[in-house]
Each structure stands twice: as C-alpha cells, then as structure tokens.
C-alpha cells in the first residue's frame, strides 16, 4: 500500500521508529540493524515500507534501502517465516550478509536470529538460494557503478580473476579479514572450473 514513508524522525527504539509526516506520527517496525543506521532525532529520513494487514493489526515494516526491503519480502515467502521472523534475521545481519549466508549455505549464521532455529534456517537457504545471486549485493552494484572507497579491487589484492575477487569481497562482507579471505581463496585448487558461489563455499570451509 505505502511504497515509503518520508518525514522527520520523532522517536526510535531498537525495533520501532516514529516518523512525523506532516504532523502525523507514524509507527514503523524496524530491524536492529536499521535502528543502528538511523539519523538523529529531528532529522529527515525515508523508510521503504512493507504493509502487513491482518484481522487485528495494520503494521508498517520499514528499511533504509530498497535492497533491504526486497530481502525482507523474499524472507517472508519462506514457509514458517513471517514478518517478525524476517525482521529478527535482518536484525542480526544486514541484507548483503544474509545473501552471502544463503549462497554459502551458512545456516548457523542465520539461526543466530531469535526464534529462528536450524531447520528454519536450512529451509530459508533451500527456498531462496536460486532466487538470489552475488550480482544482487551492494558490493557488486558499487563495482558495476565504478567502484567506491573501501571496496576491494583486483589490482590492490593481486587477485587474478573476477570470480576470485567476488568471493573475497563476499568473505569480507561476512566479517572475515581481507588477508585471511585472500589467503583462503588463493589456497583453493581447480578454481577455473568453479563459479564465484562455489569458490565462496570452498573458502568458507577452509576458514571454519
């Protein structure tokens, strides 16, 4: 129903933001990750929203980027995961980290979310792994747009292929250091026959 809410941040907690829109205070449910990236009270903010309607509730779920919103909407298509569960997952990891966890089959990382068990995490991976790719990530979008400060480059890390570079960037986004990520990727054999997703999975096994 609402594509986004744009106004001034009136109040914020770890799971809710109040946005003043022309004198009306609108409650928007948010993730802990979104809460940590909100501007200060009184500053302007735009949250991209998903409207959830049921018999006894009318709720808005909001995110600072369309990418985060799209990941939320994918999560709630998974059997057993509703808006509350999807928000819990996106509270312990941002959208890109979740994409990488799905691509690498890292159910353990996903199940760190409150109320999300190992079976639910595995189901999410199974149902979404074919619906996302590394091209959906913020890192890949920034590279495609010409790069950004702090994004790894093949030249600076001496990586000899684009798919290796993508795997290293994915590992860094998951929280691993640049040096250990590069070492794990370069230690792999027969990478010429692997795509970036397979390289990522193999490198994660070496890092565990």
From TrEMBL:
Its main location: cytoplasm. It comes from the Bacteria. The keyword DNA-binding applies. GO terms for biological process: DNA recombination; DNA repair. InterPro entries: DNA_helicase_Holl-junc_RuvA_I, NA-bd_OB-fold, RuvA, RuvA_2-like, RuvA_C, RuvA_C_sf. Pfam families: HHH_5, RuvA_C, RuvA_N. Residues 1-64 are annotated as: Domain I. GO terms for molecular function: ATP binding; four-way junction DNA binding; four-way junction helicase activity. Residues 165-207 form the Holliday junction DNA helicase RuvA C-terminal domain. One of its GO terms (cellular component) is Holliday junction helicase complex. NCBIfam families: ruvA. Belongs to the RuvA family. The RuvA-RuvB-RuvC complex processes Holliday junction (HJ) DNA during genetic recombination and DNA repair, while the RuvA-RuvB complex plays an important role in the rescue of blocked DNA replication forks via replication fork reversal (RFR). RuvA specifically binds to HJ cruciform DNA, conferring on it an open structure. The RuvB hexamer acts as an ATP-dependent pump, pulling dsDNA into and through the RuvAB complex. HJ branch migration allows RuvC to scan DNA until it finds its consensus sequence, where it cleaves and resolves the cruciform DNA. Homotetramer. Forms an RuvA(8)-RuvB(12)-Holliday junction (HJ) complex. HJ DNA is sandwiched between 2 RuvA tetramers; dsDNA enters through RuvA and exits via RuvB. An RuvB hexamer assembles on each DNA strand where it exits the tetramer. Each RuvB hexamer is contacted by two RuvA subunits (via domain III) on 2 adjacent RuvB subunits; this complex drives branch migration. In the full resolvosome a probable DNA-RuvA(4)-RuvB(12)-RuvC(2) complex forms which resolves the HJ. Has three domains with a flexible linker between the domains II and III and assumes an 'L' shape. Domain III is highly mobile and contacts RuvB. This is Holliday junction branch migration complex subunit RuvA. It comes from Waltera acetigignens. The gene is ruvA.
């Amino acid at each position: 129903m609402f594509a986004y809410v744009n106004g001034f941040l009136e109040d914020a907690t770890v799971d809710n933001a109040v946005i003043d829109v022309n004198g009306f205070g609108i409650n928007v449910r948010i993730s802990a990750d979104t809460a940590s990236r909100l501007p200060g009270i009184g500053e302007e903010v735009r949250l991209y929203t998903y409207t959830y309607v049921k018999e006894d509730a009318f709720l808005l779920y909001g995110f600072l980027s369309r990418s985060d919103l799209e990941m939320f909407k994918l999560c709630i298509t998974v059997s057993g995961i509703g808006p509350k569960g999807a928000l819990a997952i996106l509270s312990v990891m941002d959208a890109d980290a979740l994409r990488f966890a799905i691509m690498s089959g890292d159910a353990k990382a996903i199940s760190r979310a409150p109320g999300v068990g190992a079976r639910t995490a595995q189901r999410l991976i199974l149902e979404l792994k074919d619906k996302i790719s590394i091209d959906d990530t913020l890192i890949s979008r920034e590279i495609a747009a010409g790069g950004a400060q702090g994004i790894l480059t093949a030249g600076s890390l001496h990586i000899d292929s684009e798919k290796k570079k993508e795997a290293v960037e994915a590992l860094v986004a998951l929280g691993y250091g640049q040096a250990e990520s590069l070492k794990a990727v370069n230690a792999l054999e027969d990478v010429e026959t692997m795509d970036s997703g397979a390289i990522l999975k193999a490198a994660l096994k070496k890092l565990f």
